[in-house]
Design brief:
heterodimer; A: 2 domains; 2 helices; elongated; B: 5-stranded parallel β-sheet; globular
C-alpha cells in the first residue's frame, strides 16, 4: 500500500486529504474530504498532476521588452521545466494579440502557450 | 497659461477599481475621465502574470494582464477618456462645491481638472522592511515582493540567486513560485503567525510543489551583509517574542518582504477625507461617499481586498451610487453609524441609510470553521449568517436588505464561533 497526504485546493476550507492505493492507483482510497470535489482533486493530483504555467518571453518591442504568456490549460508537471527552458530562449516579434498561439501542442501534450496581452509596438 | 478642463466624473487610478467604476459612469452617458500616473491601464494587474483572476467576475480563470485588458477594453468601449503618465497632486473642493484636481505630466505640465464627482481608486502599496523595523545592515538585495515581481515580469531582471521571503502573504507565495521557475532558489518563507497569511491554494501550488519550507511562528531577526545581502538570521517565536538563543542563519543574497498592504491615501487625507485607522482607507457611507461631499472611494484604496473580482464588483456598485448623486439624490445626511465589534477587524461602509439595502464587507480576526456573523441594532438581532470557513485572509460579505434596515440608530456587527465541527 502506498500513502500520501494532500491539501485540497478546491475551496478555502483546505481539507487535509489522505490517499492510499496499491500498484498504479488501483483501489485508490481517499479520506478527509468534506465533499466530492476533494476526492476528484486528489485523484487528478495523484494520477496526472498538472499546472497552468505562466512566464514572460523576450520581445522585439522597445516599449514592452518582455511579454506575459500562459498555457491555455494545465500542463502535466513533468513537462514544466522543459517548457520554461524553451520559453526563456525565445524572442518574439511584435505585434501580438492576446490569445495568439506562441507554441502549439507542446511536446504532444495538446497544451498551447498563448499570449496574455496585446502588444502593438 | 494653465490648461483647464471639465468632466462630470474624474476617476483617479486606472486599475481594476478605476476602470470598472469609470465604465459604469460612461455607460450612463456621463463625461468620464480616468487619470493614472502609469503609461498603460491595468494598475498592478499588469505585473501579476499568474492565473487565478476573474473566476467570479468573468466566469473564467485569467491572468492579471488578461483581466486588465478586458476591463480596459470595456472602459474604452463605454467612451471613458484617459490621461496616462499623469499624477494628481491635489484635490480641492471650491466654495461653489465643485471639485478641482491639479494634475502633472511630463507631456502637458500642470493641468486643472474640474469634476462634479471624484472617485478615488488609487489602490494600495506594500508595507516595507521599514514598517517592520527589522534589525541589521542596509545592503542591496532587499525588496518588497511586488517590487521583485515588477523587476521579473515587466523589466525582465532577476533580483538575485538565492532568496528568503519574509511574510506569507499571497504576493510572497506567488513570488516563491515565480523565483523558482526563473531559476532562483527560495530557501524559506518565514511567517510570524501560527498560520499562513495567504490562500491555501497558493501554499500548495507555490510552496509545497517545490518543497519550499514554510517556517510558521518564526521571525526574521537580522539581515547580514555589506554591499549585498549575505544571509539572514531567523528565530522561532515564543508567545510572540523571538527566542534568540535558538536563532539560525540562512545564507541568501535576496530578501523579499510580503507583509501586508496599505491603502494609498496621502492624496485623500490632504483633500480633507477622514480615514479609518482599521482599514487605512476613507470612512465612507452606504453610497461609498467619503466625508468630503462629491468624493467617493472604491477598491483597494478603500480597504484591501483578497480578490480583484470583489474590487470590480465594489467599484461598479460605488459608481452606481455616484450616478444617483449626479441625478440629484441626497448625500450622506440622515445616515447612521456602523461599527465592527468582536472578532472583526473592520466593516465597510461605515454609515448606512435607513431603508437602503447595503452590502457590507468585513475582515475576520479569527480562524474558525463555523462562524456566525450578526447584525444588531437597538438590542435586536436583525440578521445572522453562518460562514462554514472563516479565515483572516478572506473577506466576508453580508447583504442587509433595506426592509431590515428601517430604524435609525447605530448598527453593530459581530462574529462569533458557532458549535465546533
Amino acid at each position: 500500500m502506498k500513502k500520501r497526504d494532500l491539501i485540497c485546493i478546491s475551496c478555502p476550507f483546505g481539507c487535509r486529504l489522505h490517499a492510499e492505493w496499491s500498484g498504479t492507483f488501483e483501489e485508490l482510497k481517499i479520506t478527509g474530504n468534506r465533499c466530492p470535489r476533494g476526492a476528484a482533486y486528489a485523484d487528478r493530483e495523484l494520477r496526472n498532476p498538472a499546472r497552468i504555467v505562466t512566464a514572460v518571453v523576450r520581445s522585439t518591442s522597445a516599449e514592452h521588452p518582455w511579454l506575459p504568456v500562459r498555457t491555455d490549460r494545465e500542463l502535466p508537471k513533468p513537462l514544466i521545466d522543459a517548457l520554461l527552458n524553451r520559453l526563456y530562449r525565445m524572442r518574439v516579434e511584435v505585434p501580438v494579440s492576446r490569445g495568439d498561439i506562441l507554441i502549439e501542442n507542446f511536446e504532444n501534450s495538446s497544451v498551447n502557450v498563448i499570449f496574455s496581452s496585446t502588444t502593438t509596438r | 497659461m494653465i490648461q483647464e478642463e471639465k468632466y462630470e466624473v474624474a476617476v483617479i487610478g486606472a486599475g481594476a477599481a478605476g476602470l470598472c467604476a469609470a465604465t459604469v459612469c460612461a455607460s450612463a452617458g456621463r463625461n468620464t475621465l480616468v487619470v493614472d500616473r502609469e503609461e498603460h491601464p491595468g494598475g498592478i494587474l499588469r505585473q501579476c502574470i499568474h492565473s487565478g483572476f476573474g473566476l467570479r467576475y468573468f466566469k473564467e480563470e485569467l491572468t492579471g494582464p488578461e483581466y486588465a485588458e478586458r476591463v480596459a477594453e470595456k472602459a474604452e468601449r463605454a467612451g471613458v477618456r484617459f490621461r496616462f503618465g499623469t499624477t494628481v497632486v491635489s484635490i480641492r473642493r471650491e466654495t461653489d462645491g465643485a471639485l478641482c484636481l491639479t494634475s502633472l505630466s511630463t507631456a502637458e505640465g500642470v493641468r486643472i481638472i474640474r469634476a462634479d464627482a471624484v472617485i478615488l481608486a488609487m489602490g494600495c502599496r506594500e508595507r516595507t522592511r521599514g514598517n517592520l523595523a527589522v534589525p541589521g545592515s542596509r545592503p542591496a538585495g532587499v525588496f518588497t515582493a511586488g517590487a521583485a515581481q515588477r523587476l521579473l515580469n515587466i523589466e525582465g531582471i532577476l533580483p538575485g540567486k538565492k532568496a528568503v521571503i519574509a511574510g506569507s502573504g499571497d504576493i510572497g507565495l506567488i513570488m516563491a513560485r515565480r523565483l523558482t521557475w526563473a531559476g532562483i532558489r527560495v530557501e524559506a518563507v518565514v511567517e510570524i503567525m501560527p498560520y499562513p497569511a495567504g490562500l491555501t491554494r497558493n501554499i500548495v501550488q507555490c510552496l509545497d510543489d517545490f518543497h519550499i519550507p514554510l517556517l510558521l511562528e518564526h521571525s526574521l531577526v537580522n539581515i547580514l551583509g555589506h554591499g549585498r545581502v549575505e544571509a539572514v538570521e531567523v528565530a522561532p517565536l515564543s508567545r510572540g517574542v523571538p527566542v534568540t538563543e535558538r536563532k539560525f542563519r540562512i545564507d541568501c543574497d535576496t530578501v523579499l518582504f510580503s507583509v501586508g498592504l496599505i491603502p494609498e491615501n496621502e492624496l485623500s487625507a490632504e483633500a480633507g477625507v477622514e480615514l479609518n485607522p482599521a482599514t487605512g482607507g476613507p470612512l465612507v457611507d452606504s453610497s461609498y461617499e467619503t466625508g468630503v461631499p462629491g468624493i467617493f472611494a472604491c477598491g483597494n484604496v478603500l480597504h484591501v481586498h483578497d480578490l480583484v473580482d470583489f474590487v470590480s464588483e465594489e467599484a461598479e456598485h460605488a459608481a452606481r451610487m455616484v450616478l444617483r448623486r449626479l441625478d440629484g439624490s441626497d448625500g450622506g445626511s440622515g445616515q447612521f453609524p456602523v461599527r465592527a465589534e468582536s472578532n472583526l477587524k473592520y466593516v465597510v461602509p461605515n454609515r448606512f441609510l435607513p431603508g437602503c439595502g447595503t452590502r457590507f464587507a468585513f475582515r475576520s480576526l479569527i480562524v474558525c470553521d463555523d462562524g456566525v456573523l450578526e447584525a444588531e441594532q437597538n438590542g435586536k438581532i436583525l440578521l445572522s449568517k453562518r460562514f462554514s470557513c472563516v479565515r483572516p485572509a478572506e473577506m466576508l460579505t453580508l447583504e442587509v436588505p433595506g426592509s431590515l434596515l428601517k430604524e435609525p440608530g447605530e448598527l453593530k456587527f459581530r462574529l462569533r464561533k458557532g458549535e465546533e465541527i
